[in-house]
Amino acid sequence: MTMLTPRTPTKLAPPGKGRRERKAAELESRTRLAGERLAGFSARPGAQVLQDLSATRNGLTHAEAALRLERHGANVVAHERAPRWWVQLAKAFRNPFIAVLVFLAAVMWWQDPADPGVVILSVMVGISGLLRFWQEFRSGRAADALKKLVTTTCAVQRRAGGAGPTTLEVPMDQVVPGDVVKLAAGDLIPADLRLITSKDLMVGQAALSGESLPVAKADAPPRSARGTPSSEDLGQFETTDPVEADNLCLMGTSVTSGTATGVVVATGADTYFGSMAGSLVGERPQTNFDDGVRKVSFLLIRFMLVMVPVVFAVNGLTKGDWDEAFLFGIAVAVGLTPEMLPMVVSANLARGAVAMSRHKVVVKRLNAIQNLGAMDVLCTDKTGTLTEDRIVLDRYLDVHGNEDDEVLEYGYLNSHFQTGLKNLMDQAVINRVNEAEEVVVDARFSMVDEIPFDFARRRMSVVLGRNSIVGDLGRSEHVMITKGAVEEVLDLCTHMTDRGRKVELTDQLRRHVTRIAEDNNRQGLRVLAVATRTMSAPRDTYSVADEDGLTLVGFLAFLDPPKADAARALQALADKGIAVKVVTGDNDLVAARVCADVGIDVGHVVLGAEIDALDDTALRALAARTTVFAKVNPVQKARIVRALQAYGHTVGFLGDGINDAAALRDADVGISVDTAVDIAKESADIILLEKDLTVLEQGVIQGRTTFGNTIKYIKMTASSNFGNVFSVLVASAFIPFQPMLAIMLLVQNLVYDIAQLATPWDRMDEEYLRRPRNWDAKGIGRFMVCIGPISSIFDIAMFVIMWNVFGANSEAEQALFQSGWFIEGLLSQTLIVHMIRTRKIPFIQSRASWPVMVTTVLAVLTGLYLPFSPLAGSLGFVPLPAAYFPWLIGVLLAYCTLTQLLKTLYIRRFGTWL
């Protein structure tokens, strides 16, 4: 049976589902098929695998390798590439409001090509799109610069015709199925391999499984009962998870120690890694930000589509001049449209990205900044985020579970004197002993022999000679020190050390010490046993047969320790209204221990197998009440994210492994780190240069500040514009002339918009930053209707004042009426910036930033100056009498007072302001 033909399904998802569901189904199908193929290779004997692949232990010939490369293609996985710059530029202008502005500009140009409004709108559209394009283009280049390839070649055994095999360094993308690859410590696994030979092989699989400790791999794992290992490669019992197969090494993992050779069984898209990557390219799912902007945009567009025809009809019917009514209707459409919204949003996001870069954060997609502020659930892995991503010796215990320095000493001797490559736990033991103690130990003992670690025994031993020292002359026995898996070491022990005495290890005591080890395992610790044997008849060499009749000394317990600041960072996120859920591929005991240490309320730990048994509805309820998920695979991680989103949460996901890529892509905001695998960085929206929750907290604050300033602009502009149009509607119905010329309306709108350009640089009240913020189209509509007409009350009051007090009640005096309303309208709009920007009393309890103060003062001065400027005649203004200004001040003070009062009532009624 041959398995050389690639199987890359193109349509695996059932029809009739949403795009996100189809992608999820496709990912699940791809990984399942890849897992089934790999499980088949794992279960078959090595000789059969080579035969199926038409390969030999000596490797392929160069000619065969070239043919297979042509047939299967390069050994690369699908990955997301940044679009060409012109495509990115076009996408920067894809916005419903930009479409409206372009339409209005086109209508104005058709009506009058010389209309200055055409230029104004065009500039606004250009600045908005270019600002967004440049920031995302620059961030994309910065993210690409973070990609670091661990290695680009691997050692492959190939033959030239009938000649013997030679080992070559071959580029990874040229590895083909059937190639025999040689592995050594530090190598990245170039493809999916079935092991042929191995020696003390340990592989780091954290990128795929999330397990922090390396795992042992071997070509011939035990098939029979424990203690009777098989030396023949007959395959292993089939497993549904290829990551757990002892005789498979998967692309994306790496060798931490030992050596091996393996035959390539899958490359590129056919690998387990490639099966995930293939479903992660293309259009990204809609996020909270995208959905929110769309809803708010169409809300404001609906207001415009309703109000503009009404104003047009009222003006045409009351004035009889339909051409003038059309022009005025277009001016009202421009006035009602928050034409600066795309630019202000882009400026807000760009400023947020720059601010976050100072905190060592690269923002790849600007929209993610707001999503970060809206995030109310953060799903994160455990290793390196909550923990230090290193192994330390946490405890050294005697047979009763009490700390014992003698256990540490024997553990140190075993780790220190072994000559092979020291694994992470050996290094942790050595690091626990200070230099002064090392000198003493080195003086007391010398190396005689060692029995190296192997996969079947799961232990290693050193034999040491005691050096002659004062008071110990003539003492010549050797001592064997064995360290390894608890069960394997206990099987060889006949005695144990109990408070300095050597006692027989009875069945009762054996159950007692086993319980001590299991208790530590349940606390999330990796436990090794330490035992000794004194050799009364010393010799030069020792073998596995001498590992018998041992005396148990105690246990060494290891863990990946929690970060010192993890608990504080988690509490800070909780204070900001963010619930943290731990989603890890590591085992449940380790996950529960670490989470408890950093202050997370663990509760029931849900395993990946439990998730598979649930439908989407049941999973939504489970995900909402669960804090820790363990032993979850990539598909399950993505399902958890989608379940939380379906429950109404804005979900962030922090991960750095291959197994995190699908969840990173599905989350509202995907967060990775610069040391992550490439596919994780490509799937992420934000890249942290430090894997630190404290950095993330700063990003959350920046995201909420960005969103708050955006909402300020929308509510200021929408309510103010709605009030203006309402005033125009009233004036059009009762005043025999235009209450304001179209050009005046455009100039007023332009000056007001310029006053709001500094909004992205405003500060937010501390209270606003304490909880997640989300788009609320319904709330914005309610705000427009409730707050907008307040300005209309005082506009109408100014109408009455200009009509009765200043005699501006005929067409001959319409310029005076229009000039008076222009100034009052502009100043009231400018004041509303300060009234709306805070729920507190402006200028007293909360002051705007200096850029906002400067721009609003300039807007006020510009409005006051225009009727007296040289431009007054061309714009239709006339100078106002001095008596006008006391009336103006009175109207504005009354306006501020009523607005503050209604603000208080609004907050009391609806519980929100911004």
Question: What is this structure's SSE topology?
Answer:
Layout: H1 19-43, H2 46-52, E1 60-61, H3 62-72, H4 85-92, H5 96-111, H6 116-145, E2 153-159, E3 165-171, E4 180-183, E5 192-204, H7 206-209, E6 215-217, E7 248-249, E8 254-266, H8 272-277, H9 288-319, H10 322-336, H11 341-357, E9 361-363, H12 367-374, E10 377-380, E11 392-397, H13 405-417, H14 424-432, H15 435-444, E12 445-451, E13 459-466, E14 478-485, H16 486-490, E15 493-498, E16 501-504, H17 507-522, E17 526-535, E18 550-559, H18 566-575, E19 579-583, H19 588-597, E20 606-607, H20 608-612, H21 616-625, E21 628-630, H22 634-646, E22 651-654, H23 661-666, E23 669-673, H24 678-683, E24 686-688, H25 693-734, H26 742-755, H27 777-805, H28 814-836, H29 850-865, H30 872-875, H31 884-910
Parallel strand pairs: 1-2, 10-19, 10-22, 15-18, 19-21, 20-21, 22-23, 23-24
Antiparallel strand pairs: 2-3, 2-4, 4-8, 5-6, 5-7, 5-8, 9-24, 11-18, 12-13, 13-14, 14-17, 15-16, 17-18
